[in-house]
Design goal:
Elements lengths: L2 E3 L5 E6 L6 E2 L4 E7 L2 E6 L4 E6 L6 E2 L6 E3 L1
Antiparallel strand pairs: 1-8, 2-4, 2-7, 3-6, 4-5, 6-8
């Protein structure tokens, strides 16, 4: 089943550190989000394979936006 990666804050994606098809572990940092001048990690909720990445560096996101899917 798919698991969505969701930011908890509104901000700007400053780094995407995974690729589609990559194996990720639970808790692994997938992206870095800058919000209120602080960097926050967006981590994989569960281990699996990255199925899609919906943002690139520089994109603005809102809290709860789906930024990646892991299966």
């Amino acid at each position: 089943s798919l698991h969505d990666a969701l930011p908890i804050l509104q901000g700007t994606i400053v780094k995407v550190s995974v690729d589609v098809g990559q194996q990720v572990e639970a808790g692994q940092t997938m992206m870095i989000l800058e919000a209120m001048k602080m960097e926050n990690s967006i981590n994989a909720e569960k281990a699996g394979i990255v199925k899609s990445i919906k943002v690139t560096s520089g994109d603005s996101v809102s809290a709860g936006d789906v930024v990646a899917e892991v299966e």
